[in-house]
Amino acid sequence: MWGPALALNLLWVSVSLTGSSSQWRGANSPRGHYHRVQYGHCTYTFVLPEPGHCRANKQQDTNALQRDAPPSEPDTSLQKLRHLETATENNTQWLLKLEGYIQDNIRSEMSQMQQSAVQNHTVTMLEIGTHLLSQTAEQTRKLTDVEAQVLNQTSRIEIQLLENSLSTNKLEKQLMLQTNEISKIQERNCLLERKVSDIEAKHRAELSSMKKEKELLQQLVGHQVNTIRELEKRLLSASSNNSGLQQQQLELLQTVHHLIALISQGKAMGKKEDKIFRDCADALESGANVSGIYTIHIENMTEHRKVYCDMETSGGGWTVIQRRVNGSTDFQRNWREYKMGFGDGAGEYWLGNEAIYLLTSQRLHSLRIELRDWDGNQVYSFYEKFHLSSEKQNYRYSVWFCLKQSLRD
């Protein structure tokens, strides 16, 4: 009965302690059993007292079985058995006490370990919480900075968007204006294209008419070429007699002009009795109305000048500064001759640059230029104001206001 109980108790102790035990007895140690139990880092040593020698029960078990073998010493075996039971009971009690003691110690140690673990965990949690709070504060500060940056960037973007919208509105207005201008230009282009098409049609019609006229002109030119050839033949035959006739014509013209000048000079001399005037306009104002040779006095000049006065053209009073009639006088002269003048007032002459300069310096003068060919065709040009500069300025002439003109280049 005790054998199974002992085995179970020993097994429970070994499992619950999860350690090791040993039993020894020294030579000089007191009598007893030493039990060492290790739990974690702790080692527990227990001394169990050794039971005394049990007395043998002299009574014999009446229920003992009889065996055929020769019986052993019954008293000694019974004593040993009882002694063993007593030792086992004592050991069991000690083990129970040991179990209670170990459980109490384990509970206290476990509570201490739990408290220390809780304290360690609490410190760790506090450190972690402090670290998390610092990280949270740092993250909050960073988030605040980022938020401020985002707000600044957002405000900048909003300002940029406003500026872009304003510029877009301006561009839209400009685009509208340009579109209107382009439409106007397109309308003008359409009108111009119509005009150009009309002009092209007119030009085509004119070209066709000009082509027809060209054909007619070519026919006329061909006819005139034939006529010119015939005339050239006639001119070749008459060229021998033409030179003599021209010479006779020149001589007759010279004689006629000379006689006219003499007659006009005689009439003027009979009326004016050699009166001296400032210019022909002064003679006209004095009552002279016949064209001819008059004597004028130009200020700052020592000698009087004989000039031809035209009293008939455009109201009269014209002082002739250059007269060419028949080519009898050579006008290929030098600077001094053109300065002082040359020729005869009754025929061909040049009054002189210095005399013209002094005349135009006295008062305003007009200029009339007349040209006449051998056939009697005449052209002229009239300038309201005329002035000739001094010799220092190379007798440069100036004219203003061409009022009438029949001359062509």
Automatic annotation (TrEMBL):
Keyword terms: Angiogenesis, Coiled coil, Disulfide bond, Glycoprotein, Secreted, Signal
Pfam families xref list: ANG-1, Fibrinogen_C
Main location: secreted
Coiled coil: 168-248
UniProt-annotated stretches for the region Disordered: 58-77
The keyword Secreted belongs to this UniProt entry's keyword annotation: yes
Sequence ranges assigned to domain Fibrinogen C-terminal in this UniProt record: 271-409
SMART domains listed in its UniProt record: FBG
Domain of life of the native organism: Eukaryota
Subcellular localization(s) per the UniProt record: Secreted
CDD domains the UniProt entry points to: FReD (cd00087)
First and last residue of the signal peptide: 1-22
An example Gene Ontology biological process: angiogenesis
Presence of keyword Glycoprotein: yes
Listed GO CC annotations: extracellular region
NCBIfam families documented for this protein: GGGWT_bact
Name this polypeptide is given: Fibrinogen C-terminal domain-containing protein
Biological source species: Chiloscyllium punctatum
